[in-house]
Amino acid sequence: MPRLTVVVPVYNEAAVLPAFHARLRRVLDELPLDGEVLYVDDGSQDGSWPLLEGLAAGDPHAGALRLSRNFGKEAAMTAGLDRADADAVVVIDADLQDPPELIPSLVEQWRAGFDVVYATRTTRAGETRFKRFTSALFYRGMERLSDLHMPRDTGDFRLLSRRAVEALRQLRERQRFMKGLFTWIGYRQTAVYYLREPRQAGRTKWNYWRLLQLAIEGVTSFSAAPLRMATWIGLLSSALAFLYGLWVFGKAALYGDPVHGYPSLMVAILFLGGVQLLALGVIGEYLGRSYLESKQRPLYFVEAERLPTRH
Ligand code: UDP
Ligand code: MG
Q1: Residue nearest atom 23 of ligand 1, based on CA coordinates
Q2: Percent of the chain with pLDDT over 70
Q3: Residue 25: burial class (beta carbons within 10 Å; 0-12, 13-18, 19+)
């Protein structure tokens, strides 16, 4: 029988884990596949780990892995994907926002020959207008800046075939923008649509600050366009400054120059200063990223593991 591993990143989800496991178990039991679950505890501090150890001890098809600290969801997923050696792997959130009941539809598309089957939500209920607007802006921007056509309204919930997982495993970059990486590997990809529910318990770890960082991460990992943008802005503003200079010079030559022009001088200085700082910041973002990559640190450390007994 083909084997399926469900990878679940977990960070402080004790409140919802028992319900999640029960629902997932029910789905896996009905699938005509040899299904197992692999929880990755991303350094939780709320008792998620003892709970997971209990689940793994009581269920031969469940395993758990604990990272040495909180490395972030991307690293936790990577740890799970590194361990999974099944024919297909599903990545799903623990908070029940991704309904486990969708897994059979994902599997069906995989059986039909797709390598990456992602779950796309049909509504964004419970999200503010501002959130929707910023997210639309982000996807639009990403498409413009990189050649990557990331599916919209799609999280990390998806199924990957063995060769897709093996491809992902080769991408060891430290700046892991998973949504982009999933798309970047290529192969045959398709969507399955679903209704995303609000979180069942606990609270989201995302806020606008983290989302903004994620967006910068996404852009800088897949595009060097902002660096080029700095060049263009520089060229444009120096061209404008040159024209303005001609005008000032001509005016002074024709009509003389009583000492005026403090405001325009200030505007020019401040504007150019701002542009220069912005360009420096952009360069800094990329430089910082190459610095982090150059250290070649491992993506995570494992503190304890309890793999499904089949291993
Ligand atoms: N998560 C994680 N490490 C983190 C933050 C989150 O492993 O540092 C897990 C979390 O337990 C959940 C999933 O990633 O299973 C999605 O997190 P969350 O629900 O907070 O994100 P949202 O659904 O709001 O995008
Ligand atoms: Mg969530």
Answers
A1: 204
A2: 94
A3: middle
